[in-house]
Design brief:
The complex is a heterodimer.
Chain A: H1 33-57, E1 79-81, H2 97-101, E2 107-113, E3 125-133, H3 142-146, E4 152-154, E5 169-170, H4 172-176
Antiparallel strand pairs in A: 1-4, 2-3, 3-5
Chain B: E1 8-13, E2 16-21, H1 26-32, E3 57-60, E4 67-68, E5 79-81, H2 85-98, H3 116-124, E6 142-145, E7 148-150, H4 160-168, E8 174-177, E9 184-187, H5 200-204, E10 210-212, E11 225-230, E12 239-245, E13 248-254, H6 267-271, E14 286-289, E15 292-295, H7 298-310, E16 319-323, H8 329-342, E17 348-349, H9 358-364, H10 375-378, E18 381-385, H11 389-392, H12 394-407, E19 410-415, E20 427-430, H13 436-448, H14 454-460, H15 464-476, E21 481-486, H16 502-516, E22 527-531, H17 537-542, H18 563-572, E23 577-581, H19 585-588, H20 592-601, E24 604-609, H21 614-619, E25 622-625, E26 634-637, E27 642-646, H22 659-669, H23 679-689, H24 698-701, E28 706-707, E29 740-745, H25 752-756, E30 768-771, H26 773-778, E31 786-790, E32 797-804, E33 812-816, E34 831-836
Parallel strand pairs in B: 1-5, 16-17, 16-23, 18-19, 18-21, 19-20, 21-22, 23-24, 24-25, 29-33, 30-32
Antiparallel strand pairs in B: 1-2, 3-4, 3-5, 6-7, 7-10, 8-9, 11-12, 12-13, 14-15, 14-25, 26-27, 27-28, 29-34, 30-33, 31-32, 31-34
Helix pairs in contact in B: 2-3, 8-22, 8-23, 9-16, 13-14, 13-15, 13-16, 18-20
């Protein structure tokens, strides 16, 4: 203290202590007694009430991946390519409009001409190569909007993680398949 | 002929005052005022407008009805409205009308995304149709030719393709059949549309009715990049735009450059790109091990090449070099430096037959005597001398037709073989094959009116009266005369011949004719234009890839050997190594027998090649994979002196490396010095060495090229040989004496890239013997019969199919040279026997 030893200070009392240096310490009540016991357990029990209340209330955790949250019908997940139900021909004619619409540039289409003997699609041309790079896709759904033949739609599957980047390039054959595990769809009013 | 210089007028369009040249069609003039008038059928390149599609209707003040802007020339004070309700209603109705029968199958149509019909429907259409009836149907798609697919449902009957066929390429094959709604485009006889320029109609079609078979469903406009460059396959050097997807050329489009190609492209330029992506292409360096070419590493191949080239036998050099079509100035320059600087050899040639002295070449290429391609279109008269444009430089064929049709150019043809220009030519004078020299001497005498015409005319096997008539019309045609002549005219004599050099004599005769017609006195619009034998013949000439001239036509101290001399020296063992830059003498250089012996005698042949053609497959010791045109960077020089720039558009497949870099590495390995790290630095080396190229850079050349004659440095052009020239008595054409004179021709279609391009393979020429029906009858030969052409002394024979042509001169037979099989090069005699082949 800079002021220690200065005797000429006007506020000094008879004890030689400076009054603005006094710090008052707040102390709790003395331990023991009933009040003491309440103080020990009361608040703890109040907290435990919340805890045990939750035990009674049951779980809200969804046990993913064993259990899945249903998605809304318009959820945009993994793409699907479609075929005509009657003829089995692919709807996609390889027009590449999806690739043009794609803001992430993740679709690659290489078209080829249909062999009239062995048709692949309904039109003159078909997609010989149709690839979507799922690691780039932002699931905006523009491809679905651009498609003039409703050949590509956004599915509901979102479990696309993989150990290898190259496995995330989905080929036409993969996109034409039903997804191996189906994502539950939220029902009306759910 | 003075070129039209229209005056500027002022007219008003949509309330804006716009300046435009008088006579310009309103559809074009509107663009000067930033007004876009939609058009389908209008295309200025096709000549006069037809007003077929009615899309360009506009309102003009003072005219009660709407007018077609494409066929209304703009006049001073004209007030035009393109946006009022009446015009808008008309435009909407026309779009609706054009779409009545259009199938709207845009997703499967190759034109989708780059389709004027789509653009205009969006921009000017109503967006809906009231048409509920069934649309008209055709079978689709139909092959119009192996190159073109036609979808008649999509056609809007704009006449563009028909006009191209009728008025531009003048093959008269496409017509419109039927009337009204049943109208459809087809060939007049139902056969496939086969013509050298057929691919242009694909680009002309404003809808997806005509599409390329080769590009069918390959890519969409948003998948691709366009990359401008120059085609190097023939001397025409058309400006092209490569469509690239996934680092590969998928399509070639014309890039308008009025001074070079006028916006057209031949089918070879358009489809031969496919040759770059076939399995036969050499993509790895090869070295001959135990008689077999085996793939090796680049380092090994370079070591082998350096070992071969650098091996010197004491005092003399041992290496000769040939450069062929597709060689850029830079590649030629580096190989020239390898030979002249490190190996001390001057045996290098880029011409096909025989060398001319530097002085004569400089005189023929002098800026004052130089005609441009555009001059062909505006000249008073054009003499096509000893060349067949559609074979040697296809694109000028269209230019000559345009000049004749639209500007009244008087066309005169002189050659041995019937020309495709004969029907529109005022004069078609024939001379015996190889007698160009005698013809030039006779023509000079006829134009000058001094000396004997009959003598040299007889030596040329030509009709003196026809030469006199040709000379008279050339003299009287006007000041602007252009002589388009082929390099073959100045071919040297075979080594066995005695006496004067016929090539030099022909060159002097040509200079004399030019002098008499006033072509050499720096008159714009008149002059000489040479079609060289190789794609970049002029550039290689000017950088000094010649035995008789250094860079910029400098006279060398001691001339080297020309191509034939190199072959003979190889046979004699004076040379042992041959360096081939994009050349295979068995295909490109004639006289097969001599070259076969020469290549057989050579101890080493270093080749840069895209394909293993016969000579390379059998004789090359080291083969470096060569770049295709779309992969190359550098400069080339057009026959009229325009330097043009090659820009790499696509990736090189496999292990192909840049040829210029390989040559630069060889140069350094052989002890030469070059500081060139980029192609541009090699161009700078050339600019330093060739005085009239001084200071030229890639930037200055730009996208459309620059003619060195128009730069200040042109003043440094060396003085060539000046007259007065005296002409020697010309060589007589071989006397037929019962046999037929052999004429050969070489077309741009008989090349490996045409053979290897899947789309063009059907065009690969097969040998046929063209002769006059009377000659054939005397020999008992009928049209289409198989014949055998030989010198008759037990030498090699060529098998061909007899093709009787009424227009062929009597006493001659024509065979094609440069073919892969049964090439005319196998028969070397001036006269041959043609016999029916016995089974």
């Amino acid at each position: 203290m800079s002021r220690t030893g200065t005797t000429s200070h006007p506020a000094s009392d008879g004890l030689g202590l400076l009054s603005d240096d006094v710090v008052a310490v707040q102390r709790g009540p003395e331990p023991g007694g009933l009040a003491g016991a309440y103080r020990i357990f009361g608040e703890t029990l109040r907290g435990l009430k919340t805890t045990f209340g939750q035990v009674v209330a049951g779980t809200t955790t969804v046990e993913y991946p064993e259990e899945k949250v249903p998605v809304y019908p318009r959820f945009r997940g993994r793409h699907r390519l479609h075929t005509f139900e009657d003829t089995g021909l692919e709807k996609c004619v390889g027009c590449s409009l999806c690739a043009a619409a794609c803001p992430a540039d993740c679709i690659r289409v290489v078209a080829a001409e249909n062999d009239p003997e062995d048709r692949v699609s309904g039109g003159e041309r078909y997609a010989a190569v149709y690839e979507i790079n799922m690691s780039r896709c932002i699931f905006c759904g523009y491809c679905e909007i651009a498609c003039p033949f409703d050949a590509i739609t956004m599915g509901h599957d979102f479990e696309l993680a993989d150990y290898n980047r190259s496995d995330l390039i989905f080929t036409k054959e993969m996109l034409l398949q039903e997804p191996p595990v189906r994502t539950p769809l939220r029902r009306e009013g759910e | 002929m003075p070129r039209p210089q229209p005056e500027e007028i002022t007219f008003t369009i949509d309330g804006r005052e716009v300046q435009a040249p008088a006579g310009l069609m309103l559809a074009d003039a509107a663009k000067l005022g930033d007004v876009d008038i939609p058009v389908f059928c209008y295309e200025p390149k096709l000549g006069a407008p037809v007003g077929a599609c009615r899309m360009c209707l506009v309102e003009i003040e003072g005219i009660p009805k709407l007018q077609t802007a494409c066929s209304t020339p703009v006049r001073d004070g004209m007030v035009v409205d393109t946006t009022n309700d009446r015009v808008k209603a008309a435009q909407e109705s026309v779009v609706e009308f054009l779409l009545l029968n259009h199938p709207l199958d845009c997703p499967v149509c190759d034109k989708g995304g780059e389709c004027p019909l789509q653009d205009i429907s969006y921009g000017w259409g109503r967006g809906e149709s009231r048409f509920v009836e069934p649309k008209r149907h055709f079978q689709k798609p139909v092959e119009l030719s192996p190159l073109i697919a036609i979808d008649r449902e999509r056609c809007i009957l704009c006449y563009r393709c028909v006009r191209f066929s009728q008025e531009v390429s003048e093959d008269y094959q496409l017509v419109l059949h039927e009337r009204g709604a049943d109208t459809f485009v087809g060939t007049f006889d139902g056969h496939p549309y086969s013509a050298p320029f057929s691919g242009n109609i694909i680009e002309l079609c404003p809808v997806g009715a005509l599409t390329s078979q080769a590009y069918r469903f390959r890519a969409r406009p948003w998948d691709i990049e366009q990359s401008g460059s120059v085609c190097t396959m023939c001397p025409g050097q058309c400006n092209v735009s490569y469509t690239v997807r996934d680092d590969r050329v998928q399509r070639v489009l014309a890039r308008d450059n009025d001074a070079v190609d006028d916006g057209w492209l031949c089918d070879r330029g358009r489809f031969a790109y496919q040759g770059a992506y076939v399995d036969e292409r050499v993509t790895r360096p090869l070295v001959r091990v135990d008689g077999q070419l085996r793939p090796v590493s680049w380092e090994r191949a370079e070591q082998e090449a350096v070992k071969l080239l650098g091996r010197s036998d004491g005092d003399g050099h041992t290496v000769g070099a040939l450069a062929g079509s597709g060689t850029s100035n830079e590649e030629g320059w580096l190989l020239r430096r390898i030979l002249t600087e490190t190996l001390g050899s001057r045996d290098l040639d880029s011409r096909r037959d025989g060398a001319l002295s530097a002085g004569l070449m400089a005189a023929l290429d002098a800026p004052e005597a130089q005609a441009t391609v555009e001059d062909l279109q505006y000249a008073h008269a054009v003499l096509v001398l000893d060349t067949e444009p559609v074979d040697d430089m296809p694109i000028v064929d269209l230019r000559l037709r345009k000049g004749h049709r639209r500007h009244g150019v008087r066309l005169m043809v002189a050659g041995s073989r019937p020309s495709s220009l004969d029907p529109i030519a005022e004069h078609s004078v024939r001379f015996a094959p190889g007698a160009g020299e005698a013809f030039v001497v006779a023509l000079d005498a006829a134009i000058g009116g001094v000396g004997d015409v009959a003598g040299p005319a007889a030596a040329a096997g030509a009709d003196p009266a026809a030469i006199e008539a040709l000379a008279k019309d050339l003299r009287e045609a006007g000041e602007d005369v252009v002589i388009l002549w082929g390099e073959r005219l100045t071919a040297g004599a075979p080594a066995a011949a005695e006496g004067s050099d016929p090539g030099a004599n022909a060159a002097r005769g040509l200079l004399k004719i030019a002098g008499r017609l006033g072509l050499t006195d720096d008159r714009a619009g008149a002059g000489l234009l040479q079609i060289p034998s190789s794609g970049n013949g002029r550039g290689l000439r000017e950088i000094g890839f010649l035995p008789t001239a250094g860079p910029g036509y400098r006279e060398p101290e001691d001339p080297g050997r020309d191509a034939r001399g190199i072959a003979e020296a190889l046979v004699d063992g004076e040379l042992t190594v041959l360096h081939l830059l994009h050349a295979d003498p068995l295909r490109t250089h004639g006289d097969r027998d001599l070259w076969q012996r020469a290549l057989g005698a050579a101890t080493g042949v270093v080749a840069h090649a895209q394909f293993l053609t016969e000579g390379i497959l059998e004789h090359a010791t080291v083969v470096f994979p060569a770049e295709a045109g779309a992969e190359k960077e550098g400069t080339v020089t057009h026959p009229d002196g325009r330097l043009q720039r090659l820009r790499p558009a696509a990736a090189r497949p496999g292990e192909v490396r840049a040829t210029w870099r390989t040559l630069a590495r060889l140069l350094v390995a052989l002890g030469g010095e070059t500081s060139a790290l980029t192609v541009m630095m090699v161009t700078a080396e050339i600019a330093d060495a060739v005085p009239f190229y001084a200071g030229i850079t890639h930037d200055e050349i730009g996208g459309f090229g620059v003619r060195w004659q128009e730069r200040d440095a042109a003043a440094a052009f060396p003085q060539g040989e000046t007259g007065p020239f005296t002409l020697d008595a010309p060589r007589s054409a071989a006397s037929s004496n019962g046999a037929l004179r052999l004429g050969t021709f070489r077309s741009v279609w008989s090349t490996p890239d045409v053979e290897h391009a899947p789309a063009l393979r059907f065009l690969t020429p097969r040998q046929r013997a063209e002769l006059h029906p009377d000659d054939a009858r005397e020999r008992g030969i009928g049209h289409g019969q198989r014949v055998r052409v030989s010198t008759g002394d037990g030498g090699a024979a060529v098998r061909a199919v007899a093709h009787l042509r009424q227009s062929a001169p009597r006493g001659s037979v024509f065979l094609e040279a440069g073919l892969a099989a049964e090439s005319a090069d196998a028969v070397s005699g001036p006269v041959v026997l043609v016999e029916t082949e016995r089974a």
